[in-house]
Amino acid sequence: MNANELTIALDTAIDEWYEAQRTEAGINRNVMTVCLIMCEHMLDHFPLDEAKWFTGSQIRLLGGSRVSKILARYGEVRQLASEGGRTSRGSQELARSFQAAINSSVAAQDFAVASMELRREVINNLHAAIVERIQADFFARQRLRIEYRHHEPTGVAIRQLLDVAKFRGGNVIGAVAQHVVGAALCLWYPNMEIDNYSFTTADTHTGRAGDFVIYGAALHITTAPSEALMHKCERNLALDLLPVLLTQRNRIAAAEGLAANFNIADLISIKDLTDFAADAVDIPARYDRNPRNERLRLLLEVYNLRVASAEPDPSLQVEIPENLM
């Protein structure tokens, strides 16, 4: 077998083993870490031999640092596990079942006689496939995580949330921005029912003048101002609505340039969405630390409730920092 054939055959055996560990709660992190490390052992010896990967009390190489290094090879810098579960009895049983599955695979004999160069290529391919599984089963399902420091401005925490969302890729940052503003509006207007739609629900499909309409203003939330958005603003003006464009600070100049091209620069309001959300916390709290912390927690709680109500993906919710609880 060549490298591609070996990879496919071994990855099929790994996938069958991996999926056999899946429960209603998903895949346990120990399954993921064991999978990565046992592939490392396949480089050093094969068939896998418990006497070589098990010390009698723990699985050799299985630790948070080693796992992180493997993930980093494939561009994944988020932490999967700090310890790795090397002394866990569950991990040991997982390693034994992994050994049984791989040693009995159709590619076992060919991999056992393969050169070290060929083994490295195959293990590299297998690790890449395992990292993709981990990203889908762990990182993509985790709530967005931020840190909060009491001495920092509220906007830092909100900007951090947007940065974490951007790192996820796709349309995550757009969804997070929309629901952050929605939560801020709930704090600004506690007696008003604030619309709550999924991020993928286009304005035109609901007949909305913007993402939110508050009294005489149509609010548009965007991380990428465009000509299409300027046309929406023009329609708002025709309806005697004030267009309010909320975007990221580094996009404000681009939005202002587009508005100038459409000759509506003096007719619309363009604001930093981070400042808009932070003001809903800071101003009512009078910048006093304890009330500010309470309102920031409330903002994040309302955000989570709105996401849970409107979005099918729970990983868009934020994990509220412990020092805010």
The sequence of SSEs as H and E is HHHHHHHEHHHEEHEHEHHE
Query: Mean pLDDT, as a whole number?
Result: 92
N/C terminus separation: 56 Å
- Cross-sheet strand order for the largest sheet: 2-3-4-5
Q: Got a strand count?
A: 6
Principal-axes shape call: elongated
Work out the helix count. 14
Characterize the biggest β-sheet.
4 strands, mixed
Multimeric organization:
single chain
Protein architecture, described:
The protein has 325 residues and is of the alpha/beta class. The protein has 2 domains: 3-141; 144-324, no CATH class. It is 56% helix and 7% strand. The chain has helices at 3-20, 29-44, 50-53, 64-73, 89-103, 108-112, 116-137, 154-168, 172-188, 203-206, 227-238, 252-261, 273-285, 289-310, and strands at 144-145, 212-214, 217-221, 242-247, 269-272, 318-319. The strands form 2 sheets. A 4-stranded mixed sheet has the order 2-3-4-5. Helix 2 (29-44) runs antiparallel to helix 7 (116-137) and helix 8 runs antiparallel to helix 13. The protein is elongated, with a radius of gyration of 26 Å. The chain starts with a helix and ends in a 6-residue tail after the last strand. The model has no long low-confidence stretch (mean pLDDT 92).
How does the SSE layout of this entry go?
Blueprint (H helix, E strand, L loop, with lengths): L2 H18 L8 H16 L5 H4 L10 H10 L15 H15 L4 H5 L3 H22 L6 E2 L8 H15 L3 H17 L14 H4 L5 E3 L2 E5 L5 H12 L3 E6 L4 H10 L7 E4 H13 L3 H22 L7 E2 L6
Parallel strand pairs: 1-6, 3-4, 4-5
Antiparallel strand pairs: 2-3
Helix pairs in contact: 1-5, 1-7, 2-5, 2-7, 8-9, 8-13, 9-13, 9-14, 13-14
